[in-house]
UniProtKB/TrEMBL annotation:
Catalytic class of the enzyme: oxidoreductase
Organism taxonomic ancestry: Bacteria, Pseudomonadati, Pseudomonadota, Gammaproteobacteria, Chromatiales
Gene of this entry: sucA
PANTHER family per UniProt: 2-OXOADIPATE DEHYDROGENASE COMPLEX COMPONENT E1, 2-OXOGLUTARATE DEHYDROGENASE
The protein, known as: 2-oxoglutarate dehydrogenase E1 component
InterPro entries, per the entry: 2-oxogl_dehyd_N (IPR032106), 2oxoglutarate_DH_E1 (IPR011603), DH_E1 (IPR001017), KGD_C_sf (IPR042179), ODO-1/KGD_C (IPR031717), THDP-binding (IPR029061), Transketolase-like_Pyr-bd (IPR005475)
Pfam families: 2-oxogl_dehyd_N (PF16078), E1_dh (PF00676), OxoGdeHyase_C (PF16870), Transket_pyr (PF02779)
Cofactor(s) for this UniProt protein: thiamine diphosphate
SUPFAM superfamilies per the UniProt record, alphabetical: Thiamin diphosphate-binding fold (THDP-binding) (SSF52518)
Keywords of this entry: Oxidoreductase, Thiamine pyrophosphate
MF term (GO), any: thiamine pyrophosphate binding
Length: 946
């Protein structure tokens, strides 16, 4: 034992008892004042005590005693003769009142904050911010109180406490965060806002940088206003601080390791962001205003304030790639598209936490409060299959909705940002005319996101100087607001005056910056800062190889039997002790027999083989939708559940060495946001078979905006390719109006210029070849698949193993029964489930002069294949019938009959057999459904005339 250890043991055994307490206390006081004043052994002992306590260095106890003496003068008293001090009842109540006041400011201080540059409306009364509400009066202002958990001195006068609280919580920044239940997050925010006293404290260089970006924000708008009078540009004026906000966000994010940022925003300020943040050539923008700019490639194009852009910006942390997403007039629909794009970029970087990719969404106040996709996107934020590491939301709060409406008409809540509370996102309301406080809020928001990987909102309260657009006259409906706006200096002017008073600028320096910026625009120079070119980014997706593909290019989608059997052998292996549900075990046993050729193939087996072989070919698969893991109709079972402990296993993840190559997600109960997310993902991942599956095809109604604005028109408007695949269960089986139709007619109405594919496969093999074709072809087009329900287990809707090992997807399928085509007098054309109803009826009735042909791809319509078949095999048929289950005004009839007419030969005539036109997709009564189904089948087969 060392001498030191012996000393410490001796201390513990003899000296540390009551008789020596005073002596040891004196030594400890001396140690705390000057550690070198005590002997080395005692010094080591006291240091060991501090380390074991884990609280850092103690304070001299004499100071504690003096504090107790002060407390005594302020109302402390001795209790029960035991020498223990406590507050008197009155003093204790005052102290509790102070702590309640502090808490009230944390909860509601933002309601008294100086947030509105126009001071349009009186602030709502907030009684619990008044000290009197808590029983505190003038006589208490100079009394000293404990500050509790406030990040400040331990004791302050009430006057000092109130001044601090007003500065932090009721100045130009209103922090709304006490709805967060996580204590760590709340304390983090409190430390940042209270510890800084709510003061930005920008350096002189930073102030000049902020001002320079305000000059740019105002400069481009004034230039456009003078050069292109009356043209729409959705000016940012009034919300100019957005440009320094984004500049700061990019530079700070780069410092913290962000390598890619995806921006989503609607119209207001978009042109400003393109020029001053992303570095778009001003000459290109001016050409667009003059109507002489044509983008490369074909297509219809879009208005200039919908267009996207991308560039690379130098930051202190290295280059950052920034992409501004294309956005239609459905303002907030871009939100999930941005999130999906970010998720795809994260996958490429193997960035599971969102540390390298940052989504930023810029909203308008009325749209943020009013559009449901905002809520749906928030609900995606922490869901496993859609997580992107948190989004920075910026609300350009105009305080006026669309053209004329004030907040009383555009929402029912005090703030437009209430929806963000569903994910407990902190909300920082900030006065848009205080650019330094905007910079403070930006740093606070970004640091929160990067610390906790959660969404955060900056609500920048500002105004619109020119109304909804530059041709609008807002004063006609908002006279008081626009009287104030006309008389108010711009943000740049206000900040220039502030900086001049602070001595930051010389006499003419600020105006020289304004002139320099305008001269740069006149010279068509790029005016964004830190733009760099020639950056090599290994994580950029290569889309060039998909622009030259041909629709009619043949592709070999077959694989060998040996490969299929080897694949099934991999899928057969379960973790040790994994206990399956008996029904699932039976399905897996059937699939083993299918791979061996002992059973006909069903749809679940064919789909699994398609995914597995694509994975082996080097592609990835992402499938999301409600019940997608199991399959709504109990057929897929891509995710297996252990009956013993509830754990899960996904066999397809064992096909490659990277389990994340196959992802299947049971999504939240959303169509619009989830489909938008998957579209965004597909536009960033050309080598992933990205699939969204509707629980029933009818549910796609809830995502119609995504279909109309992005899926059908994205390539024509913006040149954006996407291989997104939609699975829409479709078929009339007596389940009523909302579980029958995937609204096929709507997709066919959108078909033009070979923009999308619409397929109705009728066999498992067709489904298999179609999915493989989607990835193996050298182009990317959205694929709309009307998938089966009852056919999943139909005795006739099966395939053989040979069907997978030879052939390819057939756009038209000829008659399969041994009927002499030369003797046929009637040809029935159809698609989907009704084929099997027709086939069974014809066989039952023994109709040998009726042929049934299936159209498996409705768009692009296979006119060449059908015409060749009709002319070579059925020239003698005089009657050609299109048969469908849907009502006449729905389904494929109206969008397809002209294609069929082009395929007829001789004097053949085309007829319709199906349900009559109807307002509802289907009847609600099973008996009536079956009667209608029998009638349309009989009419198609011509039973009455045979």
């Amino acid at each position: 034992m060392s001498a030191k250890d012996g000393f410490l043991q001796k201390l513990r055994s003899s000296y540390l008892h009551g008789a020596n307490a005073g002596y040891i206390e004196g030594l400890y006081e001396a140690y705390l004042t000057d550690p070198e004043s005590v002997e080395a052994d005692w010094r080591d002992y006291f240091r060991a005590l501090e380390r074991s306590a884990g609280n850092g260095q103690d304070v001299p106890h004499s100071q504690v005693r003096k504090r107790f003496e002060r407390y005594g003068r302020a109302g402390w008293r001795r209790r029960g003769g035991a020498g223990v001090a406590e507050l008197s009842p009155d003093a204790a109540e005052k102290q509790a009142a102070v702590l309640r006041l502090i808490n009230s400011y944390r909860f509601r201080g933002h309601q008294a904050a100086d947030l509105d540059p126009l001071q349009l409306r009186p602030k709502p009364p907030v009684p619990d911010l008044d000290p009197a509400f808590h029983g505190l009066g003038e006589e208490d202002l100079d009394e000293t109180f404990n500050t509790g958990s406030l990040y400040a001195e331990p004791r302050m006068t009430l006057r000092e406490i109130i001044a601090l609280l007003q500065q932090v919580y009721s100045g130009a920044l209103g922090s709304e965060y006490m709805h967060i239940t996580d204590t760590e997050q709340k304390r983090w925010i409190q430390q940042r806002v209270e510890g800084s006293r709510g003061q930005p404290r920008l350096s002189t260089a930073r102030k000049k940088e902020v001002f320079e970006r305000l000059v740019a924000a105002e400069g481009i708008e004034k230039y456009l206003h003078s050069k292109y009078v009356g043209q729409k540009r959705f000016s940012l004026e009034g919300g100019d601080a957005l440009i320094p906000l984004l500049h700061d966000l990019i530079q700070r994010a780069g410092t913290q390791g962000i390598k890619e940022m995806v921006l989503g925003m609607a119209h207001r300020g978009r042109l400003n962001v393109l020029i001053n943040i992303l570095g778009k050539d001003p000459g290109d923008l001016f050409a667009e205003f003059e109507g002489r700019y044509q983008r490369d490639g074909n297509g219809s194009g879009d208005v200039k304030y919908h267009m996207g852009f991308s560039s690379d910006v130098q930051t202190p942390g290295g280059p950052m790639h920034i992409a501004l997403a294309f956005n239609p007039s459905h303002l907030e629909i871009v939100n999930p598209v941005v999130e999906g794009s970010c998720r795809a970029r994260m996958r490429r970087r193997r960035d599971d936490e969102g540390g390298q990719v940052l989504p930023v969404l810029i909203h308008g106040d009325a749209a943020f409060a009013g559009q449901g996709v905002v809520m749906e996107t928030f609900q995606l934020s922490q869901a496993r299959g859609f997580y992107t590491g948190g989004t920075v939301h910026v609300v350009i709060n105009n305080q006026i909705g669309f053209t004329t409406s004030n907040p009383l008409d555009t929402r029912s809540s005090l703030y437009c940002t209430e929806v963000a509370k569903i994910v407990q996102a902190p909300i920082f309301h900030v006065n848009g005319d205080d650019p330094e406080m905007v910079a403070f809020a930006t740093a606070l928001a970004l640091d929160y996101r990067n610390t906790f990987r959660r969404d955060v909102v900056i609500d920048m309260i500002c105004y619109r100087r020119h109304g909804h657009n530059e041709a609008d006259e807002p004063a006609a409906t908002q006279p008081m607001m626009y009287q104030k706006i006309r008389n108010r200096p711009t943000v740049r002017q206000l900040y220039a005056q502030q900086l001049a008073e602070e001595g930051v600028f010389g006499a003419n320096e600020a105006e020289e910056m304004v002139g320099d910026y305008r001269a740069a625009l006149e010279n068509r120079e790029v005016v964004a800062t830190n733009i760099i070119t020639g950056v090599r980014n290994e994580f950029v997706a290569d889309w060039h190889r998909f622009f030259d593909g041909c629709w009619h290019e043949s592709v070999d989608t077959a694989v060998s039997q040996e490969r299929l059997r080897d694949l099934q052998a991999i899928l057969d292996v379960l973790p040790e002790g994994f206990e399956l549900n008996p029904r699932v075990a039976a399905i897996r046993e059937s699939r083993r027999k299918m791979a061996a050729g002992a059973l006909p193939l069903d749809w679940g087996f064919a789909e699994t083989m398609a995914y597995g072989t694509l994975l082996q070919d080097g592609y990835r698969v992402r499938l999301s939708g409600q019940d997608s893991g199991r399959g709504t109709f109990f057929h897929r079972h891509a995710v297996l559940h252990n009956m013993a402990d509830g754990s899960t296993f996904t066999p397809l993840q064992d096909v490659t060495t990277e389990p994340k190559d196959f992802v299947v997600i049971d999504s939240l109960l959303s169509e619009e946001a989830v489909l938008g997310f998957e579209y965004g993902y597909a536009t960033s991942e050309p080598d992933t078979l990205t699939i969204w599956e509707a629980q029933f095809g009818d549910f796609v109604n809830g995502a119609q905006v995504v279909i109309d604005q992005f899926i059908a028109a994205g390539e024509a408007k913006w040149g954006r390719l996407s291989g997104l695949t939609l699975f829409l269960p479709h078929g009339y089986e007596g389940q009523g109006p909302e579980h029958s139709s995937a609204r096929l007619e709507r997709f066919l109405q959108l078909c033009a210029e070979e923009n999308i594919q619409v397929c109705v496969p009728s066999t498992p093999a067709q489904f298999y070849h179609m999915l493989r074709r989607q990835m193996l072809r050298r182009f990317r087009k959205p694929l709309i698949v009307l998938t089966p329900k009852s056919l999943l287990r139909h005795k006739l809707s099966t395939s053989s193993l040979d069907d997978l090992t030879r052939g390819s997807f057939s756009t038209v399928i000829d008659e399969i029964d041994p009927i002499d085509p030369q003797q046929c007098k009637r040809v029935v054309l159809c698609a989907g489930k009704v084929y099997y109803d027709l086939l069974e009826a014809r066989r039952r009735l023994g109709l040998e002069k009726v042929a049934i042909l299936r159209i498996e791809q409705l768009y692009p319509f296979p006119e060449g294949s059908l015409k060749e078949l009709m002319s070579q095999c059925y020239p003698g048929a005089r009657v050609v019938v299109w048969c469908q289950e849907e009502p006449k005004n729905q389904g494929a009839w109206y969008s397809t009959n002209h294609h069929i007419l082009n395929c007829l030969v001789g004097d053949q005539r085309l007829h319709y057999a199906g349900r009559p036109a109807a307002a509802s997709p289907a009847v609600g009564y099973p008996k009536l459904h079956h009667e209608q189904q029998r009638e349309l089948v009989d009419r198609a087969l011509g039973v009455e005339s045979v």
